[in-house]
Amino acid sequence: MKLNIKHTFTESLPADKNLENSRRQVKNAVFSYVSPKKTKNPKVLHVSKEMASELGISSAETKTNFFKNIVTGNEIYPETKPFAMCYAGHQFGNWAGQLGDGRAINLFEVEHKNKNWKVQLKGAGETPYSRTADGLAVLRSSIREYLCSEAMFHLGVPTTRALSLSLSGDQVLRDVLYDGNPAFEKGAIVARTAPSFLRFGNFEIFSARNDIKNLKILTDYTIKHHFSHLGNPSKETYINFFKEVSERTLQMIIHWQRVGFVHGVMNTDNMSILGLTIDFGPYGWLEGFDFGWTPNTTDRQNKRYRYGNQPNIGLWNLYQLANALHPLIEDAKPLEEILNQYKIDFEKNSLQMMKDKLGLYVDDKNDLKLIQDLEDNLQLTETDMTIFFRNLGNLNEKSSLLKIVEDAFYNLEAISGEIKSRWNLWFQKYAERLQKETLSNSEREEKMNGVNPKYVLRNYMAQLAIDKADEGDYSLIDELFQLLKNPYKEQLKNKKWFAKRPEWARNKVGCSMLSCSS
Ligand code: AMP
Ligand code: MG
């Protein structure tokens, strides 16, 4: 395995001078050198061959001991020096100070096919940023991150990716329900990849410490390596940088809304500066369409990170980034204009996204109302988002309108009386509206199928893979991995995954409720 190693990050940015792996406040540095922890009995459970090939690693190479040792932190790739990054963040709306890579360790940077990738281990032991925790990850959360990040990629949602999922062979103590009943679980390590793992919080920490020198070094580095089209550093470039981060963040969230993904912990330390979905913790997928739904039990009270609030939180987080970058720009006005534009763009892009989901391509001033009425209807009774939109594409003159989405209703008997009339009315309006379209039914269906996925990683599906893996059977991880590589395609042999959440999963921990304990 011969990788084309680069060192742009570590050579361009200030390193922590203290080489001790002790928990502390790290000042004047973007990262600290730290070695992963050796593990007892590492075992690779799954490899994303697609991702491996992006890095220049062949399928045969992923089966070697060397690969296993690298992706579990048991061996360091020649001439590389692993490190953890220093960042801060606003958690649940409050300033939390220094956080940092508490259990993520960057291994190296690889350049391949003209792309630069950072490879990072999650769960490979403590770092100076581990605070009170152990630097480890358990199998269940690692399966969730591994499967979901690759699934998001194949759905066309900007995301960090995953290279491999491994068992460490060590046991990890966790209190899943935070109820004073900790238990040992299998430890695991995900090797994940991205062009950059920088977060809003990497910029916030320097600003909060009034370390403008390093804020500028980091911002200039980010622009040079990731936004080079914006040109040389200047106030204008910094403004354009913020504008682009704002636009990318918005695009990412519109994608989340389109596929029904709820991140669950949109703290500013979990917001990628590249607009990638990052840190798959207590995330979830909408089953019943519900703007008020959050999978995160830690957020049960305020539901700050509920589905319908994700766009607003994106904006709130961008305000924090604007504050962090302000010392470089020293003018609030252009930043405020960009933030205002986010609101305008959100309305526009969100409408466009919903029109695409409904197969509406010509202009019609009543579409906003039609969409709002649909969103109201979808919440009248529990209605499966994925099935509803996917089946909607099947509509043709002969089909009974309500019939084609029947499978989406969790309780068909509830579709009666007032609720039934409201649905019938909506479908009547929708059918009338479709008359204005120029595409044939089959052309429309094909286009709609490209934005309305057939298969997503339903919460209970990940949980089934986890339950089997706990018993030592890892086959479902591969089955779901393969399924989710083609989320928009009809897959006859996988029909069973195009179904509503089974009743047993309604209130099961891990399916509808997840804590941050991972
Ligand atoms: P998260 O909510 O997962 O984004 O984590 C917030 C912060 O806690 C980050 O700085 C993480 O690195 C850190 N963290 C989470 N879990 C652990 C762990 N098991 N050990 C060390 N640090 C952790
Ligand atoms: Mg995080």
From TrEMBL:
Keywords, sorted A to Z: ATP-binding, Magnesium, Manganese, Metal-binding, Nucleotide-binding, Nucleotidyltransferase, Transferase
Positions annotated as active site in the UniProt record: 269
Function text: Nucleotidyltransferase involved in the post-translational modification of proteins. It can catalyze the addition of adenosine monophosphate (AMP) or uridine monophosphate (UMP) to a protein, resulting in modifications known as AMPylation and UMPylation.
Sample GO molecular function, one term: AMPylase activity
Binding site for Mg(2+): 270, 279
Protein name, as recorded: Protein nucleotidyltransferase YdiU
Enzyme's top EC category: transferase
Lineage: Bacteria, Pseudomonadati, Bacteroidota, Flavobacteriia, Flavobacteriales
EC number: 2.7.7.-, 2.7.7.108
